[in-house]
Model the fold of this input.
Amino acid sequence: MNHITDISRERIQATERVIRPYIRRTPILEVDGSEFGLEPFKIVFKLELFQHGGSFKARGAFTNMLTRRVPAAGVVAASGGNHGVAVALAAMKLGQPATIFVPSVASPAKLDRIRGYGAELIIAGDRYAESLEASEVWTKQSGALPIHAYEGDETLLGQGTLGLELEEQDPKLDSLLVAVGGGGLIGGVAAWYQNRVKVIAVEPTKAPTLQLALKAGKPVDSPAGGIAADSLAPRQVGKQMFPIAQSYVQSSLLVTDEEILEAQKRLWEATRIIAEPGGATAFAGLLSGRYKPERGERVGVIVCGGNTEKVTI
Done:
């Protein structure tokens, strides 16, 4: 199976038409780098934290439920939080039952949203990988439809619609910074751009799933810790997105927890954007200087989630 051609621009366009009635066209915000003490280049924030459910995950969740047959048992998902929120939301909107497995590190803000959307919430294990194993047992017992957080054509195609939307909003980007956990978002977005924009992965130092995979030439086990562990810390990067990343992702940068916290703080101070740690990670790659744009470069930054209780300021 050729995962690169499976997630084609044509299929992403078709997917966008299917899910458009159910998702928001989230805004962009252009600012000058000097607002953050950086060199004079333009930063274009894609504010996906304003998506239904508070993150980009709604795109993949609705794609799965609108293009696959959902049995009477409904759907099941394992999630560090945001994917569970999105699946619970989509299930509520489409009138289907949902069971969501989450690890103990999931933030209270995300747990409250899952419960608020009417899903059955089960806390299983301390990390995402353990919740995934528990959900797979439940899938066999119940017959529910599993919706994976970052694997599967439907998930990647749904996340790829963010790239399509961003290019329509700003066709002149030179580069795009994207936070990586399992890689569904960067896999879909990179498959859309196909090297027409320089796509840069940004990962926490305590969960370098893609960077380790790129060095090894295949997905490998990674540490799964850090302040963004509820959204960016699976055991491995996705197998389906990995060849897409090899072809279309320029590099992976690592940022510390302290740099992520600083990015959260500066986003709030300068723009009043409240991002969760995972949502601020891509910007941390820019603010920390790990990614150094050329003078005059137009840099896109995806603020991918905003499900948090607080921002340290």
Observations:
- DSSP finds twelve helices and ten strands in the chain.
- The radius of gyration is 18 Å.
- The domain at 3-56+153-303 is CATH 3.40.50.1100 (Rossmann fold).
- The mean pLDDT is 92.
